[in-house]
Design brief:
438 residues; elongated; alpha/beta; five-stranded mixed sheet; six-stranded mixed sheet
C-alpha cells in the first residue's frame, strides 16, 4: 500500500510560511510609514504654492508654512511612526492575557476537581500537652515529633493512589527507614511531609516547641481566651513560615548549592539572611562543636542556634570528612561554582555539615547518601545520631537498616484493591532482617 504524502505539511514548512508572512507584513508596514513620512511633506507646499504664484505671499512664507506644518504633523503622526512598536506591544499583551486566562482556567478546574486535600499543620508542643489526672505530663507526648493520620497520597496529575491510609507516630529517636520498589511513593511521601504535595486526604502534624521558634508567640504572649489545651486544636498553626526554625530539615538526593563562598554554603539555609560576621572564639575540642554544646534554644530565649564561628565551620567539615577541601580551595571565603567543582558525594557530605550546624529535631533524608560509600554513610549517620537528631530516611541499601530502628515498607498500590499497601516493623526486634524481598 502506497501512502501519498504530497499534501503533508512538515514543521519546517510551517516555520517558513510564518516567516514569509512576517517579512511581507514588515515590508508593507515600512512602505506605509516611510511613504507617509515623505509624501506628507508635499502637502503644505501644494497648498501655499498657488498663493505664491499669484503674488500674494513671498517665497519665505512657503518655508515658514512647511516648518509649522511639520511641527504639528509630528505630534499627530505619533501613532503612525510608532505603529511597529505599538503592534509588538499589543501582541505581547495578547499573549500574556491568553496565558493568564489559561492559568485561571487551570486553577478553577483544579479547585473544582479537588474535593479534599492533605492537611499539614504545626502544633505548639507546650499548648498541646494533655495533663494526667495528677497534673503530670505524659512521657509519650513529650517525645512526639510527627503524627500521620489516615494519609492517602495521590499523584497531582493522574490522581493515581500511591499510599493508602497510612497512620504512624514518630517520637524522638524513632529513626524510620522508608523502603519499597521504585515508583511506590517513597519520595512522594517526603514531599507531602515537606508540604510540596497536598493531593489526597489525611492529616500530617508536626509537634514543635514554641520556645524553639522566635516567630511563634509563647503561651504567655497569647490572650487567655486564645489558649486551648486540647490535644486536637491546641496551638495549631497554618502552613510553615520557616521550616528550619521549626526544627524540621529536608535533605534531597542532590543538595542545592548556593552561589557564594564556602562559608555561605555551610550557613545555608539557617543563617542565609545573617550576613554579619561573628567573632571567632576559642578553638573547640576535637570531635565536637562548641556552639552545639552551649545552651539550648529554649534557654536562649527561643532564638535560633547561635551563628557558628570559623572554628566551628572548620570542625564540622572535619566531622563530615571534608577537611581537605580547605587546602584545595584556599579558605572558607573562596567562591566557586560549587555544583561543578564538588562531586555529588562531596555535595551530600556538605549537606550533612549544614544539618549538623542547624541541628534540627527532625530531618527527612531522601536518599541523601546515595553517592557515598558505605563507610562514609555509616560515619554520617553516627554523627547525626550523636547530635540527637531524629531522622526519616528513604533508601535501598541494606546497610541503612543498621542505623534505623523502624522500617516502613511501601508496596505498589493496586488500583483495584482498597487494602493498605504499607507495613511498619521494628528492626530491633529482628536480629537479622530479611532482604529477600529487596
Amino acid at each position: 500500500m502506497q501512502i501519498c504524502s504530497q499534501h503533508t505539511i512538515s514543521l519546517p514548512d510551517i516555520y517558513l510560511f510564518n516567516f514569509q508572512k512576517l517579512l511581507i507584513s514588515s515590508r508593507n508596514l515600512e512602505f506605509f510609514t516611510n511613504g507617509y513620512r515623505y509624501l506628507i511633506q508635499i502637502l503644505p507646499a501644494a497648498v501655499v504654492a498657488p498663493m505664491y504664484f499669484s503674488g500674494k505671499i513671498e517665497f519665505g512664507v512657503i518655508n515658514q508654512s512647511v516648518s509649522a506644518f511639520n511641527h504639528i504633523l509630528g505630534d499627530f503622526s505619533l501613532i503612525v511612526y510608532q505603529f511597529q512598536s505599538i503592534s509588538a506591544f499589543s501582541a505581547i499583551i495578547d499573549r500574556l492575557g491568553e496565558f493568564d486566562d489559561v492559568l485561571d482556567s487551570s486553577i478553577s478546574k483544579h479547585l473544582s476537581e479537588l474535593s479534599e486535600e492533605i492537611s499539614l499543620s504545626y502544633c505548639n508542643f507546650r499548648n498541646s500537652l494533655v495533663l494526667e489526672s495528677n497534673g503530670s505530663v505524659p512521657v509519650d507526648n513529650c517525645q512526639k515529633l510527627l503524627s500521620i493520620e489516615n494519609l492517602t497520597l495521590q499523584t497531582p496529575t493522574s490522581k493515581a493512589t500511591l499510599i493508602r491510609d497510612l497512620s504512624l507516630v514518630i517520637n524522638e529517636k524513632d529513626h524510620l527507614l522508608v523502603t519499597g520498589p521504585s515508583g511506590s511513593g517513597k519520595t512522594s511521601l517526603l514531599r507531602a511531609l515537606a508540604g510540596l504535595w497536598n493531593v489526597g486526604r489525611g492529616k500530617i502534624t508536626f509537634y514543635v516547641d514554641d520556645a524553639d521558634d522566635p516567630q511563634l508567640p509563647t503561651s504567655s504572649e497569647l490572650p487567655a481566651n486564645e489558649i486551648n489545651t486540647s490535644h486536637e486544636k491546641a496551638g495549631e498553626l497554618e502552613g510553615p513560615i520557616n521550616r528550619n526554625s521549626r526544627g524540621l530539615f529536608f535533605l534531597p538526593q542532590r543538595p542545592y548549592m548556593v552561589l557564594g563562598t564556602l562559608r555561605q554554603q555551610l550557613l545555608y539555609p539557617t543563617w542565609a539572611d545573617d550576613t554579619t560576621p561573628m567573632s571567632d572564639g576559642a578553638k573547640p575540642v576535637a570531635g565536637s562543636l562548641s556552639f552545639l554544646m552551649g545552651k539550648s534554644n529554649s534557654e536562649n530565649g527561643g532564638a535560633k542556634p547561635n551563628k557558628p564561628t570559623t572554628d566551628d565551620l572548620i570542625q564540622v567539615l572535619e566531622n563530615v570528612r571534608l577537611g581537605y577541601i580547605l587546602s584545595r580551595f584556599g579558605s572558607l571565603d573562596s567562591t566557586y561554582e560549587w555544583s561543578s567543582v564538588l562531586s555529588l558525594g562531596e555535595q551530600q557530605r556538605l549537606a550533612f555539615a549544614r544539618l549538623l550546624l542547624s541541628k534540627p529535631k527532625l530531618v527527612l533524608l531522601d536518599e541523601s547518601t546515595s553517592a557515598l560509600d558505605e563507610a562514609n554513610e555509616a560515619h554520617l549517620y553516627r554523627q547525626i545520631e550523636a547530635a540527637g537528631i531524629t531522622y526519616v530516611s528513604v533508601g535501598h541499601r541494606r546497610t541503612l537498616y543498621e542505623h534505623h530502628n523502624m522500617t516502613l515498607r511501601i508496596s505498589t498500590a493496586d488500583p483495584n484493591c482498597n487494602k493498605r499497601n504499607w507495613d511498619i516493623e521494628s528492626i530491633s526486634s529482628k536480629p537479622m532482617y530479611d532482604f529477600s524481598s529487596q
